[in-house]
Amino acid sequence: MPELVNRRWTLANRPVGYPETRDFAIVEAEVDDPRHGEILVRTLYLSLDPYMRGRLRDRRSYAVPVGIGDVIVGEGVGRVIASQSDDVAVGDIVACQIGWQEYAVVPGHMARKIDPSIAPISTALGVIGMPGLTAYHGLLAVGRPKPGETVLVSAASGAVGAVVGQIAKMNGCRVIGTVGSDQKAEYCTDELGFDACVNYKTEDVFARIAELAPDGIDIYFDNVGGTVTDAAIENLALRGRVIICGQISQYNLEEPEMAPRNLWTLITKQARIEGFLVFNFEQDHEVARARLAAWVRDGSLKYREDIVDGFEEAPRAFIGLMNGANFGKLLVKMSD
Question: Can you tell me the mean pLDDT for 147-164?
C-alpha cells in the first residue's frame, strides 16, 4: 500500500547501562501489501515490557537479539486493514508481534483474534495477555501454591506481580508484596487485597520480610533480582520455592553484581529455584486466558494500565519502565 507511510522505531545503538533516547531512531518506509496468508495490521496499542531490554543486547539468550537498524520487537493490538488470509478478515482486532511500528504485515496464523465484548482490547497485552499468562502459569504450574502458604511477590504492583498476588489470594495463600513507593504499596493492599507490602526503597527489606513472615516464605515469585531476592532467599521456609520470572534490577547494569551469595539457605531449607518461560505453556494458554477473562469480568481480578499517548513517546516510556516509573501495565496508545 504505497499511499501509506509506516513510521518505525529502530535500534540505533546498543544501550550501555540504562537505555537513552539516542539509542533509538525513528524511520519511515512504505507499507507493503500482504501476500497470500498474510494480513496488514494498523497498530492501536503497543506493549512495553521489561524483557525487551534483553533483546537489545547482542548476547546469547532464549531469543534472537534486535539488530542495529531493525525494528524494536514487541507485541501489539491492532485492526486488520487488508487481508490475504482465509482466517482473518478486514476489521478484525488482533494481537500479534507487531514491533514498534504503526503498520505491520504478519502471517495470519500468527495473529490472535480479540473479542472487544469480553474486555477492553488493551487487556490482550496485559491481564489477559502475556503478563497475565506469565503470572498464571508461573504461580500455578511452577510454584504450585497450597492454601495457607505465604507467597512473596516482587514488583507487586506491576503487570505480572499484581496478577500473581491476586491468584495466590484466590488459592488461599497469604500474600506479601515488595514495591518501590508507598503509593504502590497502598494499591496492593487496599485495592488488590495483599496482606502486606514492603517499600524496599524506604524500609529494611530483610527485617520487614522476617517480621511479616516469621514462619518463612513458602513461594517467592521473583520479578526483580538483586537485594530483594537476597532477602527472600534468606527468609525461605522449609521446602520453599523460588520462581525466577524476571531480573529487572540487573538488566541495565554495566557490570554484574557479585550475588547471590546466600544460596546455602537452599541447603538448610531444602528449597528449590526454578526459572521458566511462558512460551513453554502454550498448550494451556487458551484455558488460562478463559479463566483470566472470567475473573476480570466478575471483578475478582483487578488490573491497572499505565497508558502513554503517542507513538513518539515509546522510547521515553520504555526508559521510564527500566527506572520503575510506570504504575501498572505500560502501554503506548497509537490510535483510536
Answer: 98
